[in-house]
Amino acid sequence: MQGSANLNLMMKAARLAGRSLVKDFREVENLQVSMKGAGDFVSRADIAAEKIIRDELTEARPNYGWLGEESEEVAGEDPTRRWIVDPLDGTTNFLHGLPHWAVSIALEHKGEVVAGVVYDPAKDEMFFAEKGQGAWMNQSRLRVSGRTTMIEAIFATGLPFGGRADLPETLQDLARLLPVCAGVRRWGAAALDLAYLAAGRYDGFWERNLHEWDMAAGLIILREAGGLAESLQPGGSILDDGEIVAANEAIFEKFAGIVRAS
After folding, report:
1. Given CA atoms 159, 198, 49, 57 in this order, what sign does their dihedral have?
2. Strand pairing report for 125-130 and 228-230
3. Tens digit of pLDDT for each residue in 115-129?
């Protein structure tokens, strides 16, 4: 696919940040594993990657706004356009040496995400989409799965950790979902969960307590691949509410009914 100048800029920035993160990832196994030391290391890797992305995007588009996980939001001179960036989605995986994490960059125009890139440097998989242009992974067109029955479907989610308040809701979700599906996966990177759903690797995804930068890029990739996505609150806004239920069209209503029942 021949992308726009903005999409090509986003992919270039994602690759540059990915290259920096891969270098740091190789050093993770050499860390003395302590919460402070290891956490500080990952924070430095995170911040360095975000600076690479921000420098690249801002130099090319100095008037655009900015929303990044590791820095303060900036209102651009052009109030209609904003970058939404997570330089390292899957931080815990990164810290533990698990090669499943991603760089996520989205472009918002007049409140709507119009382009998104999710780059997995460990596997060199670049997922990307622009509004109306379909979704792609490297050179391959993406399409959500064609499965039509729940018992054949695999779903993905995020499991609450560290005493988060949504643990009871998630356990209830699992109690209703597991008996009627082929399995549930928790891989620890929401951006990649959405990209995998777009690629047909999963059949559905839901999660609570997410941020805009966790979902913005993956959301447009999913929708351009033919997927459906809504807030867990019917009629709500995914990015504003920080929660999502998504699937292919054939099983969306059944799946959404199960996870919305709590």
Report:
1. negative
2. unpaired
3. 999 999 999 999 999
Q: Which domain holds residue 221?
A: 150-259
Are 37 and 85 found together in one domain?
yes
User: What mean pLDDT is reported for the chain?
Assistant: 92
Same domain? For 12 and 132 the reply is: yes
Sheet holding 183-185, edge to edge: 183-185, 154-157, 204-207, 244-247, 228-230
- Longest Cα–Cα distance in the chain: 52
Residue 19 structure tokens? 């290259």
How far is Cα 242 from Cα 226, in angstroms, rounded to an integer?
Answer: 21
SS3 27: helix
Total number of domains in the chain? 2
Nearest to 181 by CA among 222, 224, 150: 150
> How many residues in total does the chain contain?
262
Rounding to the nearest 10 degrees, give the CA dihedral for residues 181, 129, 94, 182.
10
The pLDDT tens digits of the residues spanning 48-89 come to 999 999 999 999 999 999 999 887 888 889 999 999 999 999
Give 58-75 as a DSSP string: HHH-TTSEEEETTS--B-
Strands 204-207 and 228-230: unpaired
Q: Of 59, 140, 38, 46, which Cα lies nearest the Cα of 102?
A: 46
202 Cβ contact partners less than 8 Å away, ≥ 6 residues apart: 145, 154, 155, 156, 185, 193, 196
Helix spans in the chain (H): 5-28, 35-60, 91-95, 167-177, 190-198, 212-224, 238-241, 252-259
User: Which residue's structure tokens are 């992308």?
Assistant: 3
